[in-house]
Design goal:
Shape: globular
Distance between the termini: 129 Å
Strand content: 5-15%
Structural class: alpha+beta
Number of domains: 2
Number of helices: 15
Number of strands: 10
Strand order of the largest sheet: 1-2-6-5-4-3
Order of helices and strands: HHHHEEHEEEEEEHHHHHHHHHEEH
Low-confidence stretches: 48-60, 167-240, 272-283
Largest sheet: 6 strands, antiparallel
């Protein structure tokens, strides 16, 4: 209550001030001064805001941006609002990210190629499926775009570049890994040629193939039939290839040449070749093996090869559609030259269509370039001819160790997983050892053809070379 009275409060304040002044020279006043004095050490301490440092300031060095490869062509302009996140000089590939939408990045490259007089070979579809491929002065560039799964990044796109005159010399080979033979066993991909010696054990694990020969290797002894359940051995071609075929094979990657040679002799590629002294057997050659293959060409080869290889077993044939069938795909009418083949595959459930429950697949896009994903999706069911195993991204990662398994379309996961369980894997036969599947990457004519060299698995199957042997025995 006293403090509520102004006069009394003022008096008390004056008294206290006088008391302090009176004690100024007393020893006790010195002690009070020490108690309430500021700490002199605080003068040299930094402000509190400077004491707080982030972990990056203390422990981490700034992350260095990925450098553009030394061989990246100057003719290719990176999209301005993008960042290089991955590169492979061996494969001549770069991967970029951007915060801009996919269609904006795509429009930039389409305009860039047009303005600089590039020849545009193919464009993505309206749905964004496929790649933008352009050529100029023997340089081929492929830009593959896709929406990103990374937070904060809208678009990821891949730029593949290659000089056309280097295509046959710069084909990356499987990496060589040093191995201690005393502690490690290597799992190898079966080769397309087999020794002809009898094998006593009927188990498939006893079948050991010989290395793939180059064209013109001398023949091995006549094959001896194996017990049931094993794949019959195959003889190696008995004579040198014709000059015409040898010349054609020079444009094929060395690891795929024997496959292409066998398929050419079977007449898979369907263009007429003159019969003369350079080409005595009128072998039908694969033209432009390093060019990209269209979806139309691949399904034509797929059906033709399957039916040729199983000439003596009509139950394995793919039936062609009749001319009176109602077209399944909007862009494959009855007058399309490949209507019977494409319609037949859809009716057999071997390609996605409304008949197989894929109600949104109303176009086949026959003239688009084939991707790796569809290459495997359409072929693997013909290897197993039964229900494929259930698959998830995690199972595919475990089987293949693909770093980009999450990019594979769910519809193709089962085929990719089943192919991993096949000792005659299509992926290993064509692409060798790889930790990237790159499902949207387009496929060359040679790669597509090599996939068709063998139908089946390690328990039962037949190759183009076996089919040639059978046809020769019937002559």
């Amino acid at each position: 209550m006293l403090l509520n009275r102004p006069s009394i409060f003022t008096s008390l304040t004056i008294c206290l001030s006088m008391s302090v002044s009176a004690c100024a020279n007393n020893p006790s006043s010195k002690e009070l001064e020490k108690i309430f004095a500021a700490d002199p050490q605080l003068k040299n301490n930094p402000p509190f805001s400077q004491l707080i440092q982030t972990p990056t300031q203390n422990n981490q060095q700034p992350e260095q941006p990925t450098q553009i490869p030394a061989d990246f062509p100057s003719e290719i302009s990176p999209y301005p609002n993008s960042q290089l996140i991955e590169k492979s000089e061996q494969e001549q590939k770069t991967v970029w990210s951007s915060s801009d939408p996919t269609n904006v990045v795509q429009n930039f490259y389409q305009k860039e190629f047009r303005d600089k007089n590039w020849e545009i070979i193919s464009n993505p579809t309206e749905e964004g499926i496929g790649s933008l491929v352009a050529e100029k002065n023997d340089l081929q560039v492929e830009v593959s775009l896709k929406p990103s799964q990374t937070p904060g990044v809208v678009t990821e796109y891949e730029i593949d570049y290659q000089l056309k005159n280097q295509e046959t010399t710069n084909v990356p080979s499987s990496p060589v890994v040093p191995v201690d033979p005393s502690t490690t066993q290597l799992e190898t991909q079966p080769s397309p040629n087999f020794t002809a010696s009898p094998i006593p054990d009927s188990s498939p694990t006893t079948l050991f193939p010989t290395p793939l020969p180059t064209p013109g290797v001398a023949a091995l002894p006549t094959p001896t039939p194996l017990p049931p359940g094993n794949i019959p051995p195959v003889s190696i071609p008995t004579s040198s290839e014709s000059p015409v075929l040898e010349k054609a094979l020079t444009d094929v990657p060395s690891g795929l040449r024997q496959y292409i040679a066998d398929l050419s002799k079977l007449g898979i590629f369907q263009q007429s070749q003159p019969k003369n002294q350079d080409n005595p057997d009128a072998t039908i050659l694969l033209v432009d093996p390093q060019n990209l293959v269209t979806r139309r060409e691949y399904v034509r080869w797929l059906v033709n090869t399957n039916n040729q290889i199983f000439t003596n077993n009509s139950t394995q044939h793919i039936r062609l559609a009749g001319v009176n069938e109602t077209p399944i795909f909007e862009d494959v009418p009855k007058n399309d030259p490949d209507f019977a083949i494409i319609q037949g595959l859809a009716e057999a459930g071997l390609i996605p269509s409304p008949l197989s429950g894929d109600i949104n697949v109303v176009k086949f896009r026959p003239n688009d370039f084939l991707t790796r994903e569809d290459l495997i999706l359409w072929k693997v069911p013909l290897d197993f001819r039964k229900a494929l195993p259930e698959a998830t991204v995690e199972k595919v990662k475990e089987a293949w160790d693909f770093q980009d398994a999450s990019r594979i379309d769910p519809a193709a996961l089962r085929a990719v997983l089943a192919d991993a369980q096949n000792d005659f894997s299509n992926i290993r036969r064509v692409f060798g050892y790889t930790k990237l599947f790159r499902p949207d990457k387009t496929v060359s004519r040679a790669e597509a053809a090599a996939v068709l060299w063998y139908f089946g698995d390690q328990k039962e199957g037949i190759s183009a070379q076996m089919a040639l042997q059978q046809s020769q025995n019937l002559q």
